[in-house]
Amino acid sequence: GRQHVLLIWLLLYSSMVEALEPVGTTIAIGAVAVTGVLVRSMSCYFNECCQPEWISFNITKLERNLDNKLFGQHIASSIILNAVSGFMRNRNPKKPLVLSLHGWTGTGKNFVSQLIAESIYKKGMKSRFVHLFTSTLHFQHKHRIDTYEAQLQQWVRGNVTDCELSMFIFDEMDKMHPGLIDSIKPYLDYYDNLDGVSYGKSIFIFLSNEGGDNIAKTALEFWQAGKSREEIELDDLENTLSLSVYNNKNGGFFRTSLIDKNLVDFFIPFLPLEYEHVVQCAMAEMEARNLRPNRDVADRVAKEMIYTPKLDRLYSSTGCKTVQNKLNFYI
Ligand SMILES: Nc1ncnc2c1ncn2[C@@H]1O[C@H](COP(=O)(O)OP(=O)(O)OP(=O)(O)O)[C@@H](O)[C@H]1O
Ligand SMILES: [Mg+2]
């Protein structure tokens, strides 16, 4: 069959060349080339592709969103703005950007990942260049760890080959099998390229609750010492954070060479949220639903949360996580 097609093609081609003058041939080739470019740009017009039309960093948007939409996370907010904008400014980064976000449930880790994605990809989290892995969903079975390692490597390599500016989010790192993450370690390291693929422009974000208790403890100590929340600095948290993460036997980071080799660029603490932040979340949620924000309703939602420690009732134990559902009862 193949030879037939070739033969027909040759016949057609030679008769075409005969029919066209040299000038005609040039025009024909030119027309084909122009059509190619047009088709490509048309398809990029309608479909997302790895081009600046679809991927370009908007620092103003990130800054505005962090300032206005993320509550109570002054440390995370400033590190993320600096880390992401520094990385995106660098035309030739030596390694991918690797962020590890830590804190109690409902404090904004997924939310921030979404804000980062929205500042880079036109389609935000829906972009085909943004990949979200959830340990309990994608890497569920312990006995399949070897398969997962191979799949993960392939998936990451394939996608970065497709688009250098890819983003990978690993959710629930604390429930990930220790060791799995080591399988992508080479990609996070300082290599110009590995087998012809360079990973330097990609972003990796790890999310976990690990270290959350230590962060909350430090926050509480500040409060007990009469200091304001905003006085807490990264230095107060960073060391205990990376240590507790490293030594957590059950977490995906346990003794991983990712930490040994300093491949994580930033450990980012998320502080536990206070009553007032929960109120802010409720107000923001009403606004997002095109309702007039109502402080009374927000107060009622916030009062339903459980706060710890029991005595002081300072920090919402589920952050803002259930605000959206609770709100449904009042509106
Ligand atoms: N600091 C915050 N500022 C504003 N909104 C927040 C904040 N934290 C949480 N929220 C709201 O609560 C929702 C749930 O938070 P998110 O999913 O980001 O929590 P998480 O830190 O990823 O928790 P988990 O550890 O359980 O995964 C968000 O979609 C957002 O609407
Ligand atoms: Mg989350």
Would you kindly provide a written description of the structure presented here, covering whatever features stand out?
By secondary structure, this protein is α/β, with parallel strands linked by helices. The protein folds into 3 domains: 2-46, no CATH class; 59-270, Rossmann fold (3-Layer(aba) Sandwich); 275-327, no CATH class. The chain is 51% helix and 10% strand. It contains 14 helices and 7 strands. The strands form 2 sheets. A 5-stranded parallel beta sheet has the order 2-3-4-1-5. A two-stranded antiparallel ribbon has the order 6-7. A hairpin with a 6-residue loop joins strand 6 and strand 7. Helix 3 packs antiparallel against helix 5, helix 9 runs antiparallel to helix 10 (234-247) and helix 12 packs across helix 13. It is elongated, with a radius of gyration of 25 Å. It starts with a helix and ends with a helix. It binds adenosine-5'-triphosphate and magnesium ion (MG). Magnesium ion is lined by residues 109-110, 171, 207. Belongs to the ClpA/ClpB family. Torsin subfamily. Residues 1-19 form the signal peptide.
